[in-house]
Amino acid sequence: MRRMGSIPFGYKLILPYVLCLLIAVLTVGLFAYAHSVNSLREKTRENLQGTLRQMRDNIRYRTDDIERISNSLYYNYSLQNALRRYDQGWYSYETMTRTLMPALENLLNYTASNIGLSLYLQNETLPEVFYKDGGQNPLLSTKRYEIYHVQRIQDADWYRMLEFSGNLPGLSRWQQILRDQEDGNISLLQRLDDVQRGKAIGLVRVAVQIKDLLDSVDYRKIGEYSTLVVLDDNGRIVMQSSPEGTIAASSRTEPGELVLSESLHGLGWQLQAYIPYSLFDQSANEVRRMTLLVCLVSAVVLAALGIWVSGYFSRRIQKIVGSLNAFHDGDFHKRIRFKGNDELAQIAIAFNRMGSNMEELIHKNYVADLQKKEAELESLQAQINPHFLYNTLSSINRLAQFGDIDKLHIMVQELAKFYRLSLNRGEILTTVGKEIEHAKAYVAIQCIKYGERLSVYYDIDPEVLEYATVKLILQPLIENALEHAWFGATLGIRLVVAKRDSEIVFKVIDNGVGMNADIIRQIMAPEGPRIGYGIRNVDSRIKLHHGNSYGVIIASRSGIGACIQISIPCRM
């Protein structure tokens, strides 16, 4: 019952309608979300498979480009006629310079990739042309052609294992031979036949860098955190593209991945993509956000009608509650204005009348209390050392009798400064700097009176001089020390003024006779005896002006002196 009673009036009106509305919207939203996510996952899978096919087609385009170079040599009948001749001398030179070498030069310019074109010939009357690389991959720097005799490779295992069908002349295959695996290359091998005679006249080898063939294999085209792997016919990794850039195992069994694959025809390799399901989750999150947005908009639109129905009544109740809370916070100027003459309008009229009466009563009590405090403050200030003027004038009289004009002049000046600062144009507040000047004027008068028996030291923080304080709070403490703290022939007093956090702290420290705990308790008692009346006077004035959190604190023990501390807030 308490919980129901704490629900606002407007919520009680709209809550049943909103609950029914939420059940309907959530049911429709969950169904739409589940259907959309399933459709999106299937569509995303199709898009990724399409991207993989596009990579496959790009690779196929590169391999076809290399195969066209090889086929250009195979179907070059003028080249076949030239290679069919085994004449030496001039005929051999003419075949090399006018037929073979120009044909190879033209084929090198057929593609932009760096390729190595090698021609192995049965005709040994033609000279060999080749380079010495010294173990470096030649395709890293340039494209070039070389001419060898077939006898160089007749005993090589890869050459003997080549299986070219006699029924399919010109059949080619991709294979890594010689130093291809170390250099990261792969070669297209194709038999060079004499088409007219049906006889093999050589072998064409076109070497290309694997990274040039597979430059379209980029995991970023699939999605973040995906991995693309190209496997050869033995299941070994030829290339991998992933955020980590490391070679993974050829068979992966991680549970949170979708595996898609495409065959790279011609090469006999396999292109595989490992896609984390988190990629699908990102798309599902977008659908979830859109579904939530649609549900929220629908709920808001449908709930607006119910809110409008309950709003007419709840707004008036909220105005009354808000005005009551303003009264609780001390704002009695709040008023309610309702049109009409219904029950709520009558409550508003009664409420406004009550607020006016309370404001008037509080104002009267506040003004009376303020006047009382100001009268008490003026009375307390008027009690500060009324006999000080008499004692000082007596000292001036003695100085005049003794003819000590210099001291007489100083005492008159300091007395004038003392009372000028005391009056302060009738203001209760002064600055910390003027209060310190007032205390120094009093000390200067007393130093003339006591001479070398009195020593006063000052430790003033310049930062506090512009802050405001109640006037006449330091002089009574110094006067109290001069009257009660003497312990022997001399007395030392130290005045410290400093800022501490949000407070200003004054300390009057003496090395006199000190006070025990009982005397301190009597001094600070509001209705205590007359002893320490000046200290109690200062404490009362500070508390009247700044509150009970501030005032005077006494720390002393018999025989070790006393420290009287005043704290006031930092105010300008």
UniProtKB/TrEMBL annotation:
Location relative to the cell: Cell membrane
Cross-referenced CDD domains: HAMP
UniProt entry keywords in alphabetical sequence: Cell membrane, Kinase, Membrane, Phosphoprotein, Transferase, Transmembrane, Transmembrane helix
Major location (coarse): membrane
Membrane topology, record value: Multi-pass membrane protein
Matches recorded under Pfam families: HAMP, HATPase_c, His_kinase
TM segment ranges: 290-313
Domain HAMP: start-end pairs: 311-363
This protein's name: HAMP domain-containing protein
Species for this entry: Paenibacillus helianthi
